[in-house]
Every structure is written in C-alpha cells, then in structure tokens.
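2 proteins. here.
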Amino acid sequence: MKSATTYARFARWSLTRACALLIVTAAAPGWAADAPPTPLHLMLDWYVNPDHAPLVIAEQRGLFARHGLEVTIDAPGDPSTPGRLAAAGQVDVAIGYQPQLHLEVDQGLPLKRIGTLVATPLNTVMVRADSGIEDLAGLRGRRIGYSVAGVEQALLRTMLEHAGIGIDDVERVNVNFSLAPALLSGQVDAVIGAYRNVEAAQLESQGVEPRSFFVEEHGVPVYDELIFVASPATIAAKGDALRAFISAVEEATLWIDNHPEEAWESFRRYDASLDSEVNQRAFELTLGRFSPSPAALDSGRYLGMQRFLLEQGLIEREQPLDALAVDLNAPAP
C-alpha cells in the first residue's frame, strides 16, 4: 500500500529514455565564493518529467550553483525506495508524496517534509466526457478501474460517499496501472488515480476529452502532491544547504510562472525524450501547481491528512506536526 502511488506513476509515464542519472554541476558564471560548492544528493520519485520542471530550470539557469550547491540528481531504480534512502541517509533529499510520508512515518521511518514541489493534489476520478457521466452519482453501477488498493481505495470510497453512493454500488476492476488505456478501450467507465496533468494529456492526445472529478472537491482533505523529504539527521547536519536548495527551487518556480513559454522551450531541450506533445500538454497542465513558496509549511494540510488516514485505518498512530514536517525558514523556537 505504501508504494501504491509510486508504482502507479511507473505505469503512468511513457518516457522511454534511459535517464537514470543526471549530474547537475555547479558551473554557473558568477560563482566565485571561496568555499567549494556544497554537494547535495537528490533522489527523484521517477524519471524526469514535467512535475520536475523547477529542478530542471534551476539547473539550467545556474540557480543551484548560485546558491553554492553542487546537486546530483538520481532517478530511482525502484520507485518505492526514495523515502527509505533518505531515511537511511543514503541520499540527502528525496521527492515523495504527502500521503506516503504519513504511512512511512507511521511505520517508523525517520523522515520529515522539508519543502513542497507540487502544492495541489493531482489525483482524480476520471471519465471520458462522452461517457454520459456528469457527476460522481452517475458512477452507480459502473466499472471503476484502479491500480492498487490502499490510499486510492480510501479516496474513492470517500468521494463516492460524498456523492451519496457506497463503494459496493460500483464494480472495481484492477487495470494493472493501465489507467488511460482502460478508459480509452472502454474496459472501464472511470478510473481512480488518474492525474489531472498526465492521464488528461494522454487522453487528449488520442482525441478523447477527459472529465475529471477532483479529490479535494469531494470530501478528501487538501494535501501537497509532491514534497521534498529528508531525515532529521540530514536536516541537522545540512540545514544551510537544504535551505539553499529550497531557495533555488523557489526562484526557478517563480521564473517558470513568469516565463511559461520560455520555460517549456528550456525544459524540452533538457533531453530529447521530453520533447513530445503529451509532455508539452502535461507541462501546461502543471503550471500554477508548483508551490511558489516551497519552504512554507501548511500545518493544516498535514494534520488534516493525518486525521483522514487515521479514520480510514491506514495509519495507527497520531504524530505531532514536528514529527512530520518542518519549515526550514521558521525562526528557531
């Protein structure tokens, strides 16, 4: 259950390039500090894709170097491992998912959120616009595809109950991570776990208009989709470097917001495999969802999602906020 979202993303992206390792070197003009750059090792959640645009732009514009960092970015061989690698101190920072962080902390992993990359949920229940399904109540008696049980099943149950129907009023079909193909082929009438910036772009590329029901509009508490996590030991040892990293990401995000077309041109040139119509559409759909203040911590989101997961029986214990997340820029107590 813990790795459900990450495995879903493996199937979600069709990027085929062998981009398992990216080395971001601090070579920007103007870096003339006496001290050598501080190395920082970041593990992505998956291969580079539009969700990672601020990282790509920060590298391309020399923002990491300007902040005195030499950032090495790896893509995971196993998408279930980034959080564990960060908890073990084998990488300094990992990209993860807020619901997954709660599960990992509940299991005893020493991890904390230190920043936010994508600040809104991306998950949806998605149908074809030509399906005749106008609202969630229209799913009664329909087939709904899913990839794995766990958090996504809890989201679906909550959304259906919010619409006045029960989980047993629908037929659930395991589509083995093939969410968009299952909708396109008519194997199912809807899917849970479809991302509003990915599966939507995939359906559009096939000439099919998607209709999305957003989780946060149907009873699910708002949460951060993609976050940066680190171990308490790393936070204590490399706090200044982590703050510099988050500042570089913030500057890159604001530049993307100010120059979206130029940002796409820069992003697609980063690697030939990124230059596709689906990625361009996904990039457009992700704009405005990157956190403009990556360090800022919305405590209500973490306490609210924790309550939700407790009520759903997916975690066993309530954690204090500072065991889950920190604002690196907050004044020392």
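next one coming up
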Amino acid sequence: MGRPTSKPIFIYSEAVLNYFFHDEHPFNQKRIALTKQLLECCGFLIPDQVRAPRMATDEELLLVHDREYIEAVKKASQVSGQSSPGQEHPEFHPFGLGTEDTPLFPDMHRQAVLAVGGTLLGAELIAQGRTKRVLNLAGGLHHAQRGKASGFCIYNDCAVAIEYVRRQYDMKVLYIDTDAHHGDGVQWIFYHDPHVFTFSIHETGRYLYPGTGHVNEKGIGEGYGYCLNLPVDAFTQDASWLDCFERGLEAVLQFFKPDIIISQHGCDAHFYDPLTHLAGSMSIYVRMPELIKQAAETYTGGKWLAVGGGGYDIYRVVPRAWGLLWMVMNDVPVKQGPLPESWLSAVRAHVNGPVPALWLDEEEVLPVIPRQKEIEEKNRLMLKQALSYLRQQVGPH
C-alpha cells in the first residue's frame, strides 16, 4: 500500500478508462485522462502521488448491493461480449441494465468493480492514517441502487466505501454530493442510518433526472434528520448556488460533527454542460472544495475522500473543474491564469468552436439570466425550508 505520506493521493490507472458504454454515450471517462494530463503539464501531479486502484471483492460489493444483482451484472458482462451489435437483452431490464442510460458493454462487471476498488483504496489509506486526502475521479457513481443500475452507474462506490468505514472503523460519515443530479442512490441506501449524513445540492428534479432530492426527504426512523437536500432552481448562478451550499454545509457540520468526509464532485452544474440547466461557472469548483477542505480540517482531522461524478462537457469543463479540485486538495494557490498551450493544442483538435484558455471563466462568457433575482429568491425560500429541522436542533446561525 506504500509508505505514509503527507501528500494527497491520486487514484488512477489507464484501466479506469475502460468503463465505457459506446461512442455516442455522454458518460466518457476520457475526461479523467484529460484532467491528469492537464495537471501533469502544470507540474501539479507527480508520480509519487499516483496509486493504481485495486479490484473490489464480491464481499465488499455485498456491503450495499444484493447478491442477485451482482450475479446479473456478471452475466450481462458475458452476454454482452457474445452479442451482435444492437442486440436487445430485455432480461436485464429489471436490474437497470441494457437500458438507454446504462447499456451493456463487455467486461462491465470488472470495470465497475475497479471504480469501487479505487474508492475503497482511498478509504483504506485515509482510515489507516497513511494520508489524509485522496481523490478517485473514476468513482462518484452515486445513482446505483442496492439491486439496480441507474443513471450510468452500475455499482455505488460511494455507498460501498461509506459502509466499509462504518463497519471497519466505526466512523461517522458525512457524504457531500455537488453533482447537478440528486445523489439518490447514496441517500436511499443510508436513509435509515443516523451514523451517515447525506447532503446533496442539485438542480431541482422538476425537469431533471432522477426527479428526487426534495427538501422534505430528511431520512426515516432513527435516520430522520440525517439527510439534507438543496434542490436549486434551473439557471441558478454562482452566488446563489454557493450561498445555499455554504449555509447548508455549516448547518450540517454543527449538527453532525463527522469523523470523515466523502464528497462527490460531479461538475455538471456548469453553464456549458449539455445535460443540465444550471448556470454555474468554474468559480464554484474552487469555492466548494475550499469549504469542504476547511470543514475536514475543523471536524475530521483533515480526513477527506473525494470522488468524481457527472460532467458531460469533457473538454471545456471537466478537466478544469477537477484540476482545480486537486489544486485545493494540494494547497496549491488556485491558478487565475492561462492553461498550458501544449494541453490546449491537443484539446482543440476534438472541439468544434472556441476552447477556454484560462482556468477560470472570463466575465464576458458568463450567461445573462433574465430571471436571476426571481431564481435567487426561490432558492432562499427553499434553503430556509430545508434547514428548518437542523436549526431547531442546533439553533439559528
């Protein structure tokens, strides 16, 4: 597992790029390689910080997934490898496999297990005191349910890692989800558990998958109060998004006081993202990691495991957002200046139209939202309602 290090660890091997549905599918892990190349071009990622992921075992998957589902994924892997192009397999539809969102691909079980193993390795490194911060960009598959694939996600690496540190190290886990889509899979798996707090900020499910993540979803039984959802309005911009996130996080921390933070860093709230309707800029992908790092330093002794997630503009958005996340994790002052020309040249070959040349978005490219004030007011009212229970428990702040 290597010697203890004070430096953050970056989980990566080229094998993680094989989690690949098909050429037209929006989920493309090539974005991880683009991020790594960008960081290496800038000198922000050195070989000593990189660890290859390991495979998760069946026993580890069974921490949160049903055995029948795991066997279905294994069978789908085999069947896919023997199928002719375009062949339908409706027998897997009850498991969420072979659908438009989560089509079959050869060796899908093994590739999904590797994503889980990377997040588990990060949890182990942190829990054993070998490092405090780990980033596994191949993880963040937050939609997968106990017995069903969903939203491009086959196994839920976040949930497996949470249950692992619960059982092995008896840690209270704060799960933070900044993806534009609600982190439904993790929420429902721990909905009853008062030792796991799930906090998700996302676009309202009124028009966006998965349609859940309402403010009145607060947990059940002993887990009531250990779930906070902040569903912001479509076309929300930086100031309102960050106001909701910061005030929500502060309330959660005062109430829950975690032992470790596991955060999912989908970056599809950016205005370039083709699948969502939000209007965030690159600035939120600086400020949110800063707040999470500060929370970890204050409450968990610095223990922070970060994973990837959504993000479907794989050239103009994701490498910059995840690169900025890594800079924050490494205490590197966030770059305001240009991206390296050698990296930009390679990216321009794949993009029709201009490619941002700076780490942060320039003011003149930010979208103008006519309903901005109305949207901000709706988000303020939503936040007040969402925080009402926590404020009753810890008092206003």
